[in-house]
Amino acid sequence: MMRYPNGSKKRVSRANTAPASSADKYSNRGMTLEEDLNAANIYYLSRNIASIHKKPTPVQIVNVDYPKRSAAVIKEAYFKQASTTDYNGVYKGYHVDFEAKETRNKTSFPLSNIHAHQIAHMEQVIHQRGLSFIIIRFAPLEETYLMESEYIIEYWNNQERGGRKSIPYQTVKDKAYTIPFHFQARLDYLKAVDMVLEKLEEN
Amino acid sequence: MMRYPNGSKKRVSRANTAPASSADKYSNRGMTLEEDLNAANIYYLSRNIASIHKKPTPVQIVNVDYPKRSAAVIKEAYFKQASTTDYNGVYKGYHVDFEAKETRNKTSFPLSNIHAHQIAHMEQVIHQRGLSFIIIRFAPLEETYLMESEYIIEYWNNQERGGRKSIPYQTVKDKAYTIPFHFQARLDYLKAVDMVLEKLEEN
């Protein structure tokens, strides 16, 4: 089994949840947030709804072997820290940029899931009038939200000044948009993006 | 020295060109197109002009070693074909997406530099109203152009129907935008993007 340098890609066990009988939200069981987002992006692309992709894991390649008559093999490489968020693309003329994080926590979203360089990146995207947000999954609750980066940045800056190190679950529930489960798209997060766009167009 | 599975990242020797005396276009000598674009993107980011990044090289990781008290080492991995273009980001609210290609050819840009899946990606980006283009460098001429993907797609489709396998240099010169050399940004390609935007706003 492959392991990653950070915990964001760990498969979250949901073996403790009750068995499901139909295509309700429990159909999602056993899929990581990343798998759900990949399924959504493939669905969006196939229907010409949006072109959004996960960026490859950044790797520092040190040594490559070139065996005769077969593909190059990377023999030594190291994980690098990403300088941006993991997902971006274009939807209805909007630049869309986001990070996706899963937490096992039920009562708050720990800011330790986010890195300083990602906050800086979110600020850059907002400055250029892109749509910047985080998709947060509370795995034990099987609830997934889209929270605009402005809130994340606010909590982050407050933490820097000695404030709390997490965003309370209730704040996420109040400020963020619930992402509905969709049979084909799985995690139909563009529904939540549409709500952000509606709000922007009202202002 | 590291080698890549495709030729797009090869360093182009310019040892045959005449020596330069000042900060004119020859100051660019010895820098690959990729290095120039990285320098431009760092400059744009540092001045809050745009947030545009090169995507990491996609790698299929097969085996990772976890030595005690040191970083994880990737022991076996393979290069994967990218499913998108190499660069994207956001500029003045516009989603910007492009591929960069250097050719040693002086008379035409060979379409063999582009892959079918990249053409499909360009079509998706255009459909979502993003700005899609290719940055083409004719290395022996030390000339770099921004060509909108619409032209590339046109030539590509024509090739599929048995047409020519390259875009003539003169067509690039006529249809594309010259990218000026800039002392700080090096390859100041957003100047060419501005010209595309002006044209779009006129229509």
UniProtKB/TrEMBL annotation, chains A, B:
GO cellular component: cytoplasm
Keyword terms: Cytoplasm, DNA damage, DNA recombination, DNA repair, Endonuclease, Hydrolase, Magnesium, Metal-binding, Nuclease
Entry's cofactor comment: Binds 1 Mg(2+) ion per subunit.
Family annotation (Pfam families): RecU
Single GO biological process annotation from the record: DNA recombination
Enzyme Commission (EC) number: 3.1.21.10
Signal peptide range in chain numbering: none
Subcellular localization(s) per the UniProt record: Cytoplasm
Cofactors: Mg(2+)
Site description Transition state stabilizer, residues in chain: 101
GO molecular function annotation: crossover junction DNA endonuclease activity; magnesium ion binding; nucleic acid binding
Enzyme kind, highest EC tier: hydrolase
Region: Disordered, residue numbers: 1-27
Residue stretches in coiled coil: none
Catalytically driven reaction(s): Endonucleolytic cleavage at a junction such as a reciprocal single-stranded crossover between two homologous DNA duplexes (Holliday junction)
Alphabetized HAMAP family for the sequence: RecU
Purpose of the protein: Endonuclease that resolves Holliday junction intermediates in genetic recombination. Cleaves mobile four-strand junctions by introducing symmetrical nicks in paired strands. Promotes annealing of linear ssDNA with homologous dsDNA. Required for DNA repair, homologous recombination and chromosome segregation.
Family, similarity comment: Belongs to the RecU family.
Entry-linked NCBIfam families: PRK02234.1-2, PRK02234.1-5, recU
UniProt protein name: Holliday junction resolvase RecU
Naturally occurring in which organism (per UniProt): Salimicrobium jeotgali
Gene coding for it: recU
